[in-house]
């Protein structure tokens, strides 16, 4: 019983309510050039990381 009371208080404190409409998340679209920049940055990082190894 205590757990359910704590859960109800936590949900209320986070803004959940019975008669409010559901919230939704927004989808963040990542373009192809962002992936390209990430891959290039990782490749350059690995070159610097392993450059001094025999």
Protein described:
- There is one protein chain.
- The protein is mainly α and 54 residues long.
- Helices cover 57% and strands 0% of the residues.
- The protein has two helices and no strands.
- It has helices at 2-13, 32-50.
- The longest helix is centred in the last third of the chain and has 19 residues, at 32-50.
- The N and C termini lie far apart (63 Å).
Relevant terms:
single chain; 54 residues; mainly alpha; 2 helices
Give the SSE layout:
Blueprint: H1 2-13, H2 32-50
Helix content: 55-70%
Structural class determined from secondary elements: mainly alpha
Strand content: under 5%
Give me the count of strands.
0
Give the overall shape.
elongated
Contiguous runs where pLDDT drops below 50 for at least 5 residues = none
From the alpha carbons, calculate the radius of gyration and give it in angstroms: 23 Å
Q: Helix and strand string, N-terminal first?
A: HH
- Compute the average pLDDT: 86
Q: CA-to-CA gap between the ends?
A: 63 Å
Number of helices: 2
Characterize this entry briefly:
The protein has 54 residues and is mostly helical. Helix content is 57%, strand content 0%.
């Amino acid at each position: 019983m205590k757990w359910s009371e704590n859960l109800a208080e936590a949900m209320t404190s986070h803004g959940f309510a019975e008669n409010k409409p559901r919230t939704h998340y927004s989808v963040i679209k990542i373009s192809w050039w962002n992936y390209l920049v990430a891959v290039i940055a990782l490749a350059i990082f690995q070159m610097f990381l392993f450059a001094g190894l025999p």
